Amino acid sequence: MDVEAVLQKILPKIRPTDEERAFVEGLMRELEGIAKETIESLGLDVKPHFVGSLAKDTYLAGDHDVDLFLAFPLDTPLEGLREKGLELGRAIAEKLDFYEIAYAEHPYVRASYKGVKVDLVPCYDVKSWRDVRTAVDRSILHNRWVIENLRGRNDEVRLLKRFLKGINAYGSEIYIRGFSGYLAEILVIKYGSFLEVLKNADFMLRQKIIDPGNWLKREYETAMRTVRREAEADRPLIVIDPVDPRRNVAANLGWERYGFFYFKAHQFLESPSEEFLFGRATRSGSYLSELRRKGTHLVTLVFQAPELVEDILLPQLERTARGFERALSREGFSVLGWNVGHSGNKAFIMLEVDRRERERVKIKPGPEFFTERGWDFYRKNERVWLIGKRLFAEKTVKEDVIDVIVELLEKNQVAMGKSVRENIRDAGIMLDYVPKELEDEAYLFLSREKWNLKGQQ
């Protein structure tokens, strides 16, 4: 099937239907009414702004998260913004179905209304990048820029977002390190279409700097500071934010996720298929067969997950896995790979090691040489020597990797993420066995299907 035919099959599945649009638009009108009424009743000078993919009409069918930003005047002190912003967010959320307080740079309200997630975020009412005072302020400027520049290519953005989701490269959160929705929008605006973005996967990597706002002409010094800083940090792409020359939109994009996009873009153009955009059923197999095939061993630590949001928990688990890798390598074991994650209220760290036991030579003190026991010791041991009148010998012992890990933990010799350190001390440690709910995860890890560039998932 040629590429255009594949895209024509995909578009109706990812484009919102007329009914869906009517629901979303009605929902946004209601939320805006509630927000304005609440702002008025509290006597505040605040403007409600919808931002994100719903406001830009780049959302995928079935994906209706609402971002409602509450823009305070620029002369509001930061403390006042935090306090009044939370008070206003709470007052709006009281009229919705459910809410909780969440924390980013400053507290905001996470609510739910008619089955849709609604984030109520206080920010400053900025007109230009020079006004930006908090990390979220730019969102209003982003919205405006995309709406002005997209010019009817909304479905192209949908295709790119769906492709990035299908290959697991979507999301700029620190634990994913993929493409943000805004970056996808910028790339479509820059290259003109979904297919052109894929065709430029190699070129944009070599070109390195994408400057859609023309900042290198308009604000050379500021933009060059961004370029130098990001080049030093070795980012795959430097995309100077078209609304702020101080920011790289692709700052959170990691080399692995870009590499995945790079190969998958090539594969899709060569043999287009819906599977790239929707993924295929995850392969399953036996992790025990994988261990037999490779002749390696699997150590799994399972423990209570601390109550942390994912973008804090996962980096802590990764840091701890790297700590185990270094500690075990000092002890003579090779760690061939590691994997971390959480399932429900349990977190896990998996380590693939080259062997289950190591041989260690220990010095064994014996009795005095002129006794009956001395003769016995002399006959039983291979290498025997005297220090003073005592006999000594070498003894080879086998030490199990689990015992080594327990000892490392007892002696505090593993560098770990501070929020998971205490929980890991009580971890269940398993060798060549995982609980039933982790069997598929263990297979995907050991077979490397989890990261396989040649599969379509």
Automatic annotation (TrEMBL):
Gene Ontology MF, one: magnesium ion binding
UniProt EC number: 2.7.7.72
Location of the Polymerase nucleotidyl transferase domain: 36-142
Highest taxon, organism lineage: Archaea
Binding site for ATP: 53, 56, 142, 161, 170
UniProt: CTP binding residues: 53, 56, 142, 161, 170
Keywords of this entry: ATP-binding, Magnesium, Metal-binding, Nucleotide-binding, Nucleotidyltransferase, RNA repair, RNA-binding, Transferase, tRNA processing
Protein purpose: Catalyzes the addition and repair of the essential 3'-terminal CCA sequence in tRNAs without using a nucleic acid template. Adds these three nucleotides in the order of C, C, and A to the tRNA nucleotide-73, using CTP and ATP as substrates and producing inorganic pyrophosphate. tRNA 3'-terminal CCA addition is required both for tRNA processing and repair. Also involved in tRNA surveillance by mediating tandem CCA addition to generate a CCACCA at the 3' terminus of unstable tRNAs. While stable tRNAs receive only 3'-terminal CCA, unstable tRNAs are marked with CCACCA and rapidly degraded.
Quaternary structure (record): Homodimer.
NCBIfam families, sorted: cca_archaeal (TIGR03671)
Further information: A single active site specifically recognizes both ATP and CTP and is responsible for their addition.
The name this protein goes by in its record: CCA-adding enzyme
Lineage, broadest ranks: Archaea, Methanobacteriati, Methanobacteriota, Thermococci, Thermococcales
Gene of this entry: cca
